[in-house]
Design brief:
The chain is of the alpha/beta class. Helices cover 38% and strands 25% of the residues. It folds into 3 domains: 197 residues, FAD/NAD(P)-binding domain (3-Layer(bba) Sandwich); 116 residues, 2-Layer Sandwich (D-Amino Acid Oxidase, Chain A, domain 2); 38 residues, no CATH class. The structure holds flavin-adenine dinucleotide (FAD).
C-alpha cells in the first residue's frame, strides 16, 4: 500500500473506525498500533508500566525486520550502531584472545542497535491522536461475534470498553494469553538456560570501544557487544537443570555461582562487578512460546506473547515488526473481516515463525556451547565461515541459518 493510500485511510472519521485494544507498548504493540492506524483503525494502547521504557539490550534487526520496518515507514528512524572497523575476539579467563565471530558476521547483515532504539523509531511514527494509557492492564476479556468487552484496570479503577479487536502484545508472560488462551504452563517451554543482559558503563576487560568479546566455556558464556556511539552491553548465558532455583536469592549471586569455581579473570570479573552495580538489568530464563493458534475470535497475540523464539534466534524484533505489518495488510485485504484476515495472517506467518523457533534452538550452541563437543563445532564454524568459497556451503550444513534467510526474503514479500 502506498503512502497516499495510508494517508487517505487516516482521514476516515473517528466514529467510523474499527477500534482495537493493543496491550503492551513494546515493539510489537507500537508497530501493531502504527499499522492499524495506517489502515484507518483506531488503536488504543494500554501499558502496565508507568511510562515508556528506553534503553534495553543489544538487538540485531535482520532482513525480514528491515523489510517490515521499511513498509511501516520507520526504517530510516532506527539507527545502525555497528562500530566502524569492529573487531570481535574470543577471550579466555587468563586474558588470551583470538579473533572470533561477531554478531554482525551472522548471515543477513543485521542492523545493530539497542532495543529502545527500535521502540523509539516506531513510537515517533505513531500519530499524536493514538491514545496511550499507562499503568493500565486488562483484567477480563469477553467476546461475542461482533466485538470484545475488555475490562481494564488503572490504579485500582476499572472500566469495561467495547473493541472490534484485542491484540495481546504483552510479551513472554502475556496477560492476554492467560485470560483468553490459558495458563502460561500450557505454552511456555524452558530451554534450560538462564540469560542476563545489561548496559555496561564503559568498555571492560581492556577491550577497545569498537571491540566485542566472547568468553565461551562448556555450558556458560559472556558476550560483550560494542556499539559505535554508546557503551557496550553485556550478555550472560548459562545452562542449568534447575531453573526455579535460579530465581531464589539475588541474581548476582546466582551469576557468580554459575561462573565458579575458576578465578573469573579480568573480563568476566569486571562484567560481574558491573552487573552488581546496576539496577537496570534483565535476568530471566530462556523460554519459547509455542501455540497451535495465535487467535481466538477477535483476540490475537503478536510478538513474544505469541511466538517468543528467545534471544538465541535473533529474530524477535524482526518477527514482531513483520507480524504487525502483515496483520494490517490482511485486515485491509479482507475488508476488515476479522476472522478470515486473522486466518490468512497466521497461515502466512506460521512457517516463518516455526523456522525462527528452530533457529532459536539450533543457535544456542553459537551463543553458549553446552559442552566441549559443541565448543569444537563452534570453532569449526568460525574457521569455515572465513573460507571464501566453500565457507558458505559448509556453513549451510553446519547451521541452517541460510534457510532462514530464504524465509526472511519470503516474509519480506508477503502482502
Ligand atoms: C538479551 C536479549 C537479546 C535479544 N536480542 C535480539 C536480537 O538481536 N534481535 C531480535 O530480533 N530480537 C532480540 N531479542 C528478542 C526481542 O527483544 C523480543 O523478541 C522483542 O523485544 C519482543 O517484543 P514484544 O513487544 O513482543 O514484547 P516485550 O518487549 O516483552 O513488550 C511487552 C510490553 O507489554 C507490557 N506488558 C506486559 N504485560 C502487560 C499487561 N498485563 N498490561 C499492559 N502491558 C503489559 C510490558 O511492560 C512491555 O512494555 C532479544 C531478547 C533478549 C532478552
Amino acid at each position: 500500500m502506498g503512502i497516499e493510500e495510508r494517508a487517505f485511510n487516516a482521514e476516515i472519521s473517528r466514529s467510523e473506525r474499527n477500534r482495537a485494544l493493543v496491550v503492551g507498548l513494546g515493539v510489537s504493540g507500537i508497530a501493531t498500533a502504527l499499522r492499524l492506524r495506517s489502515i484507518g483503525w483506531e488503536p488504543v494502547i494500554v501499558e502496565k508500566a508507568h511510562g515508556r521504557r528506553t534503553g534495553g539490550y543489544f538487538i540485531g534487526v535482520f532482513g525480514a525486520g528491515q523489510a517490515a520496518a521499511r513498509r511501516l515507514g520507520i526504517l530510516d528512524a532506527i539507527p545502525d550502531r555497528s562500530p566502524a572497523n569492529s573487531a570481535d575476539y574470543v577471550v579466555t579467563r587468563s586474558g588470551n584472545r583470538r579473533s572470533g565471530l561477531g554478531f554482525t558476521d551472522f548471515p543477513g547483515e543485521p542492523r545493530v542497535m539497542l532495543r529502545g532504539d527500535v521502540e523509539q523509531g516506531a513510537f515517533a511514527a505513531l500519530p499524536d491522536d493514538v491514545e496511550i494509557r499507562y499503568s493500565t492492564t486488562p483484567i477480563r476479556i469477553e467476546q461475542d461475534v461482533s466485538g470484545v468487552n475488555a475490562t481494564l484496570e488503572q490504579n485500582g479503577t476499572t472500566v469495561t470498553e467495547r473493541f472490534d479487536l484485542v491484540v495481546g502484545a504483552d510479551g513472554l508472560r502475556s496477560t492476554v494469553r492467560g485470560l483468553v488462551f490459558g495458563p502460561h504452563a500450557q505454552y511456555l517451554h524452558r530451554l534450560g538456560y538462564m540469560i542476563a543482559a545489561f548496559m555496561l558503563p564503559r568498555p571492560i576487560g581492556g577491550m577497545a570501544a569498537n571491540e566485542g568479546a566472547m568468553l565461551l566455556e562448556p555450558g556458560r558464556s559472556l558476550l560483550v557487544l560494542p556499539f559505535a556511539d554508546h557503551p557496550p552491553t553485556a550478555f550472560f548465558s548459562y545452562r542449568t537443570d534447575d531453573v526455579d532455583t535460579q530465581f531464589i536469592g539475588r541474581p548476582i549471586d546466582r551469576l557468580r555461582a554459575a561462573y565458579r569455581p575458576l578465578p573469573y579473570g579480568r573480563l568476566l570479573g569486571e562484567a560481574l562487578d558491573a552487573f552488581e552495580a546496576t539496577d537496570d538489568y534483565l535476568y530471566d530464563t530462556a523460554e519459547q512460546v509455542r501455540m497451535n493458534t495465535w487467535s481466538k475470535g477477535r483476540v490475537l497475540l503478536v510478538g513474544d506473547a505469541a511466538w517468543c523464539a528467545t534471544v538465541y534466534s535473533g529474530m524477535g524484533v524482526s518477527a514482531a515488526l513483520a507480524g504487525a505489518d502483515l496483520l494490517g495488510t490482511m485486515l485491509q485485504r479482507h475488508g476488515d473481516r476479522v476472522g478470515p484476515a486473522l486466518q490468512a495472517w497466521e497461515n502466512h506467518l506460521r512457517p516463518h515463525i516455526a523456522s525462527y523457533q528452530r533457529t532459536g534452538i539450533k543457535q544456542i550452541s553459537l551463543f553458549t556451547p553446552a559442552n566441549r563437543r559443541q565448543l569444537v563445532e563452534r570453532r569449526l564454524f568460525e574457521i569455515v565461515d572465513r573460507l571464501p568459497v566453500i565457507g558458505a556451503a559448509i556453513r549451510r550444513r553446519l547451521n541452517s541459518s541460510e534457510d532462514n534467510l530464504e524465509k526472511e526474503r519470503d516474509i519480506a514479500f508477503v502482502g
